[in-house]
Prior knowledge:
The protein is an alpha/beta fold and 494 residues long.
Amino acid sequence: xxxxxxxxxxxxxxxxxxxxxxxxxxxxxxxxxxxxxxxxxxxxxxxxxxxxxxxxxxxxxxxxxxxxxxxxxxxxxxxxxxxxxxxxxxxxxxxxxxxxxxxxxxxxxxxxxxxxxxxxxxxxxxxxxxxxxxxxxxxxxxxxxxxxxxxxxxxxxxxxxxxxxxxxxxxxxxxxxxxxxxxxxxxxxxxxxxxxxxxxxxxxxxxxxxxxxxxxxxxxxxxxxxxxxxxxxxxxxxxxxxxxxxxxxxxxxxxxxxxxxxxxxxxxxxxxxxxxxxxxxxxxxxxxxxxxxxxxxxxxxxxxxxxxxxxxxxxxxxxxxxxxxxxxxxxxxxxxxxxxxxxxxxxxxxxxxxxxxxxxxxxxxxxxxxxxxxxxxxxxxxxxxxxxxxxxxxxxxxxxxxxxxxxxxxxxxxxxxxxxxxxxxxxxxxxxxxxxxxxxxxxxxxxxxxxxxxxxxxxxxxxxxxxxxxxxxxxxxxxxxxxxxxxxxxxxxx
Length: 494
Ligand code: AHR
């Protein structure tokens, strides 16, 4: 059958919100502490306590928005413990994640500084599970009120004269689970109540995000949309990818076989069905698509690396993770009419991270390189594509060989992201370009010889992007031959 694609370069399906390329950093394991925050007195080079190497690497991928402080941690976090002189901050136990001591040295001011340094918008998750309406309300006042008020005065005493700009605020996290084990009707009422006191001060307008469903809990979406969509701007969705069983053995990040590869791909592709079905429910209550679907936790979740703290969720990252990232970002691009933000879990040292650190060493993961290659889609116009591709069949599992998305940037460059999901054999795709003629293109590729290939501190460049030239353009026909297990970016010049 072969692989074919039709690409219309002169029809836009709408803008791809740059926030689809968002990230998530929780007080979990070595993500915030060690991974991002080392403190001003550290021997590791840092800018006001934030490690310089990580900062520079993250700046390079243009993080548009960063979600913090959790995750499950958010519904146990009391923000007042994390402001004021650091040596006086309350120490607490991080009960969700490893039972370690949290010294609250990284709090609101440090997070806002990180966002400033990154040029990213902050997305803060408030505490509904164990917090109060007053506490949430005062946090927003502390961050955004200009003028005289108890919280604004306290912020000034703590060294910040002017309010911060804060747009994205989550009213709780996973309130169907670690955020309070609530039923949807109960949470919908709580959402209505809590959000009332999340105020817009001055010209700061908050985009309010309600806790949405876990994976395929369509009932949760139905209830939330019915009872509270008039008071929300976004509804979250969480879906993680793993080949095994969540509460038993999810599978190793590096030691896996063909079956696990194929199942991992099919579970990543499942995101498309989830978004489609949740969006259908949302369309019923919000046909104008005003409320965004905010996929604020996604990515691979494997067994922790042997010998590491099970509560720290530290896992390696292979070319398989790169394919999961490529496939997922392609799906988000396709659904840019409803998906207004997505945040991969998590930035450093936790789950499908961009970066791994060990002491003063740092390594970029294959997933990092995908975010680097795909940043061209941020705020670009989503282009309609049709793909006809071979299917890879393995028992009950059926996955497409080639999956793709495309967009056109402001300067007229057409960027096509192609994923070859097969572990064996190259894949040739013929692309029928419609709307305009293109004669010149650049190519980048991320691939590797073995499905478990990954970067280590000893061999940090095992999996890294290369120039790609196995393509031709003639008479509006673009033909590319991709090796197995590869992600290719083709940029067609206007
Ligand atoms: O990302 C790890 C955890 O996964 C988050 O804290 C929680 O929201 C989800 O269950």
